[in-house]
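Please predict the structure of the following assembly.
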Amino acid sequence: MVDLSSNFLGIKSPNPFWLASAPPTDRKVNVERAFRAGWGGVVWKTLGEAGPPVVNVSGARYTAIHGPDRRLIAMNNIELITDRDLEINLREIKEVKRGWPDRALVVSLMVPCEEHAWRAILARVEETECDGVELNFGCPHGMSERGMGSAVGQVPEYIEMVARWCKAHTRMPVIVKLTPNIADIKHPARAALQGGADAVSLINTINSIMGVDLEAMAPVHAIDGKATHGGMCGPAVKPIALAMVAEIARDPLTAKLPISAIGGVTTWRDAAEFIALGAYNVQVCTAAMTYGFKIVEEMISGLKTYMAAKGYETIEDFRGRAIGAVTDWQHLNLNYVVKAEINQDLCIKCGRCHIACEDTSHQAIFAKIDGERKFVVNDSECVGCNLCTLVCPVEACITLVHKTEGVDPRTGRPYAQPPLAWTAHPNNPGVNAAAE
Amino acid sequence: MGIVSEPRGIADVKPGRLDRATLSDNFGDLHPPLDAHEAKVESDRCYFCYDAPCQQACPTSIDIPLFIREIAAGNPLGAAETILSANIMGGMCARVCPTETLCEEACVREAAEGKPVRIGLLQRHAVDAQMATGKMPFSRAAPSGKRVAIVGAGPAGLACAHALALAGHEATIFEKLEKSGGLNEYGIAAYKAPDDFAAREVAFILSTGGIAVKHGVALGRDVSLGQLRRDYDAVFLGVGLGSTNKLGLPGEKELANVIDAVEYIAELRQAQDFARLPVGRRVVVIGGGMTAVDVAVQSKRLGAESVTIVYRRGVEHMKASAFERELAQTNGVVIRPWAQPIAIEGHGDTASGVLFERTREEGGKLVGAGGAFRIEADVVFTAIGQKADGATIESGGVRCDSAGRIVVDAERRTSAPGLWAGGDCVSGGLDLTVSAVEDGKQAARSIDAALKAKS
């Protein structure tokens, strides 16, 4: 029997699918619709300090890039934190939490970098009886110009400082939401840990201009002729998020720091991948904004089916199982030889493998055999780079085959060799120096 | 022309079997154009193959992957230029090419999933965009001072004239009919090129400049080959096929409702009002090619109650493609293979039916197999192929094959110096618009090279 329930920092939810702090979680009506649809939890849209409300643009807040079939590949936004009155938000949060005690309800916060401001808002939020707070150190547009959001997230010292204030002024779990707009994600994660944060969530959106309108000669979508960068999200950012989650998960300093993963989660499989890299749960936004809340049904059924097939009973059974396989380049086995192999029964003879290899790689795929249009790998040149399998339009037509018997015609060396990484490779000057 | 006149005898032949709205629907676009989004989605299906099989299968070698990629990238005009630089009749070919046996058959997605990229429709999308601009994308080279005579304003002649004009030469086309376009204007089924497309394409091609068309001038009647060869620097023959094959049965000529399908289609194509075209209630078509299907389907769409195509061999032997046969069948046309006509029955000047016998193949030869049957008919169409009218040509000292078609080399040179030929009138061709265009294009290259060598 598969149990999808999740326990993240003691915050329980019936499944690991949460909605990220974003437009879908800005108000009670949306959040209750999400809970009715089956979402395990939400992070309420970011609250700011009391006072005059935030003002948003009234032009296009969202921009996207599409595939030719109009499938949304990535979205960007310039919306600010909630522009609703703080009191209304607090009241609604309290009502929702009371009505849905089995669901996770975390509140995202962003106030100026002053201790009293954080202390004040935390006190108010605690009254709602919500499950925790998420510090928004990620938004890269608008609020960052006012010294908040990613302006904090880009300075590890600020992260640590604010996390410490928050831990000092609330008993609630504190999650620090990280911006990917930095050079090395390990540093802000370590700072969050240093400041006492209970967890990190990542990634927030990535600085982006989604396109330039060549008629108007302005980025899309301009507001009265001018545009600013926004924050990009959606399926296209998932690989970036996976890499950052993996970095934190395998960094000895932060390996124990719980992670809530965010970034392009669209199906159960995306979620499972983040969990395999150590995430306790995932937060979703773009997929919901594209298709509506119902997608969680697919996520739940997909994850259940996968776990049942694998014999995993709980999330913990496979959480983090892929972390050990993430390493540095220098530890990869350089004696491991693969060659591409083209399945002639599946090949439709489009020739893309040939021209990609011929023009841009190793000239290792013949286009003609005995005068016939036929695509065959030349093992004497193939380095197993995988480009051909990527450009082949037929799934599983070209595969990389691990060679263990015989001699590699490219190098003249037997395929079977003991593992050898760069750290011990004779061509590595460091290795030679050590030997001398 | 008046191929079918007023009802007579006992045959049930009359106009207006369907109301005008239905007729207008029936003769609208067979394949409606792709809209911009459909074109984007469809173009994304193209794999941009290396040394693309579709391009190899195209008689005019259009760079199909490139033009599709141009469409995908939002550049339909660039796509049109790619198409038209290889085939100036890319618009008509997109509508009438049997793509299912050419580019789309070769498409690797046909091999992969039985669903080729819809190359024809994409080609139309691009060329339509170009024609909507009203502009010819190519401009002419500096005047060469050379003059070329072209006989026949069909696809071969027009393609040749266009390419010559671009190279700086002056082309004069002699056309015996009152309109240019050849079979595009007089032969193609109406629902394949509605909205007067053939004429619009001719106007587009003539906008190249440097092309004059003299209508009502027939070779052998108004002008001789010898005269043209004397008066011009080069001559291209694109005269098509002059006549049609006959059944050779008594009554074929005399009976008023036994009709040559080619002539009927020409009349239909020129009709201003389909509601005035006389249509038989029960129609029998003898033949198995594109013309047979065209006349059968159009008869059905004009309101004929029953239409039967009778073909002497098997369905798989029909020259009409699988797509055309399916079109006939989905239009309610019955195809009866393995039967040949042995007599046309009639009363007075009117045929009332056709007597057929079954056939079979014996050692590769077709033989009668008895078992006669009769099909009642108000109109009998013969559609058993066209043939060359080679007498005029041969008398000019030009070598023809046994069927009277002109023999040409790879450059489309005839046996006579200074004389080129292309299209249906030459030996060994595909008898398609697209191959005629290729002939005209290749001939123009050869003529251009020859004229430059001379000067």
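Chain A touches chain B at residues 67-70, 348-352, 354-355, 367, 373, 393-394 (CB under 8 Å). Chain A has 13 helices and 20 strands.
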